[in-house]
Amino acid sequence: MSTRLTIVVGVTGGIAAYKAVGVIRALVLEGHSVHVVATDAALRFVGKPTLEAISRNPVATDLYEGVAEVRHVAIGQSADLIVIAPATANTIAKLAAGLADDLLGNTVLASTAPLVIAPAMHTEMWRNPATVANIATLRERGVTIVGPAVGQLTGTDSGPGRMVEPQAIVEAALSTVGRRVADTQSPDASSGDASSVRRDFEGCRILITAGGTREPLDPVRFLGNRSSGRQGVAIANAALARGATVTLLAAHLDVEPPAGVDVLEVGTARQLESAVKDASASADIVIMAAAVADYRPLEVREEKIKKSKTGERLILELEQNPDILAGLTASKRAGQVIVGFAAETEADPSALIEVGREKLERKGCDYLVINHVGWSEGFAAERNEVVMLQSGGDIVMEAFGSKLSVANRILDVIASR
Ligand code: CTP
Question: Is the pTM of this model over 0.85?
Fold first, then answer.
């Protein structure tokens, strides 16, 4: 981005505050003017001198300093963008209520700039109905929520609640500003697909899974698959352009998801299952494009597995992962639409469809998108060829083209329901 922006970075009091330093540094290195507003609690985790040195500006904390210049209004009005990282459960609650009991709350209220927040808290706090409702309120008001990621938390526990990595926050935040400027343009204008300019998913909440899960074997190795996440991210792009509110559960993507999508990073199949359970409750449409590991190692070694000195074989014992899609369809809400994917290696087209029909029946979803994959097909490619079946087994759509145009064709089928 070539324009120099004035960016307010709000830092609130969570352990992830130390990672805010990375956010501030990345924004400064991109050439932006960064002004940190830290809460008192934030300064218990990271020192003011650090924040001042990295941001290259004085750090504002106190509402009652600089009163003559009406500092909260001045900071808020001058901002092109406000990023709060980490955003604690407490801060999220205050933002949702519009409270202004500290400098950050005042700054946000006095500003019309886009607001981007990166939540960070323990899983229980993130899942608490109060936090869920507060996040929904902020989202409705147009606040961009980045994350949280699923992974190791402060203690020994893990789950959704980890702050997304600084670079991803910066990218999401900066593209929020870019998107405001380009809001009226369709990101798919080059695909030549007229359907992409329609806002036919306005008011619709779509949950998309993308990428490939990874099952750890030891601290340095995992069992994974070759999914790049391109098709799932293309669906996220298309859905966003067509007006949907999109949540993307991202399992190791090779491509950047679009800004404006709520991205939650996941690692293993069981983490994905937990995130799907959480996020599907409020979704009108669920699109399961992720390649999920069917098996995980029975044992995850605490230390790196060592090579046998005598040349013996290594036998890994695996146990089955839950079938997330089947579980989802079993508990689906009336009116909810669930789309599964199947990447198959059957070379014969009619055999491919038969495998797809059997899978559709087994998974119980409304649609199944089948594509042929092989050593040199499907994964990481820019184009895709798919056949879409509907419940009962009839073919409702066949498409070949860029992953974005295929994404739009899939959405066309769903929209026609
Ligand atoms: N899927 C899932 N949970 C799993 C495996 C797959 O939710 N444990 C979902 C995928 O996201 C996809 C669909 O189910 O939408 C089909 O995935 P696929 O791997 O093709 O199906 P499997 O059930 O693994 O069937 P098989 O191994 O027999 O091909």
Answer: no
Question: 161-177 pLDDT, tens per residue?
Answer: 899 999 889 988 887 77
3-class secondary structure for the chain? CCCCCEEEEEECCCCCHHHHHHHHHHHHHCCCEEEEEECCCHHHHCCHHHHHHHHCCCCECCCCCCHHHCHHHHHHHHCCEEEEEEECHHHHHHHHHCCCCCHHHHHHHCCCCCEEEEECCCHHHHHCHHHHHHHHHHHHCCCEECCCEEEECCCCCEEEEECCCHHHHHHHHHHHHHHHHCCCCCCCHHHCCHHHHCCCCCCCEEEEEEEECCEEEECCEEECCCCCCHHHHHHHHHHHHCCCEEEEEEECCCCCCCCCCEEEECCCHHHHHHHHHHHHCCCCEEEECCECCCEEECCCCCCCCCCCCCCCCCCCCEEECCCHHHHHHHCCCCCCEEEEEEEECCCCHHHHHHHHHHHHHHHCCCEEEEEECECCECCCCCEEEEEEEECCCCEEEEEEEEHHHHHHHHHHHHHCC
The catalytic residue among 106, 134, 225, 384 is: 225
321 Cβ below 6 A of ligand 1: yes
222 lines ligand 1 (CB under 6 A): no
Distance between Cα 210 and ligand 1 center (Å) = 13
pLDDT (tens digit, 9 = 90+) per residue, 64-118? 776 666 666 778 887 889 999 999 999 999 999 999 999 999 999 998 889 999 9
What residue ranges define each of the domains in the chain, with the CATH number in brackets?
6-184 (3.40.50.1950), 205-416 (3.40.50.10300)
